[in-house]
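Quarterly update from the structural biology core.
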Amino acid sequence: MLDAMKTLYRKLFELEQWRIGVVDQTLAEVFQRGIRSEQVTWFPCHQYDFVADPFLFSLKGKPYLACEIFNYFSAKGKLRCYDLNGQEYPFFDEVNRVKGHKSYPLVFEHDGEIYLIPETSDLNAVSLYQFDDQKQRFIWQRHLIEGKDFVDTSIVQEDGYWYLFTSSAQDPYTQRLFVSEALTGVFSEHPQSPICCHRLGGRNGGAILRDHHQLYRFGQNGVGGYGKSLLVIKIERLTPTQYQESVVRELTGVSPYADGLHTFAYSGEHMVVDAKKHTYFLSNLFKKIVFKCLERLNIERRYH
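Predicted structure, tokenized:
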């Protein structure tokens, strides 16, 4: 009876709260010892229920933080961009104008240009955007792959080929790999895809990281709940015909957001993660009811 009451209480009043932390550690320290709570400063963006999926990029030498924001009363996630002092920039306005959920804003540089691949699973495509310096916005260029509700897509160039790592909302822990000879070329599924079919690491949790000559993939641990922890996965072999990887470290949430962690970003000078805690308030029940109604009716309210 007590267990049943606890389960009912959680269903009624439990909600996750995600926050982004700036980590003051070296990459070697994190890979060897994990993230230390006393070395994390939480990003000042508390008006949202979720501030998550952090990515780092530089524009004209200035570092920026790209992330997802989400409120239960708005029903759909959107993208935001800040500098590391908390100043907001409208770089993602064109992306957010497209109806639907937006998250996982993977920003990367290639040949002097800045590109974005956001999660746009509502469009059943992986979309490529390019930063327009005059408009100061990311502008849609093309779909890289289509046909499924792709989520949490990461991409990397290695030895003249582009490798695209992704999964689908219907099967989020089956990691698929695609390869192309050009960023805007035709992506074909890798002969060893899917490369992971498990809740341990099958869903991406950040950009592919290059540390000197070594590549790392970050895979979410969904065993025991969404975003429980994050696996650091060493890519042992990556060619158009072969793929091999191995887990080298698990990263967990840190106090006061110690209930989970599911995204890691590193730029060489800065490091950020997202982490969560569970909250239990009477108002959470109202939030859940509103969210379920908006979701069922497919209503998307604007953020202010």
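Residues 1-297 form a domain with the Tachylectin-2; Chain A fold (CATH 2.115.10).
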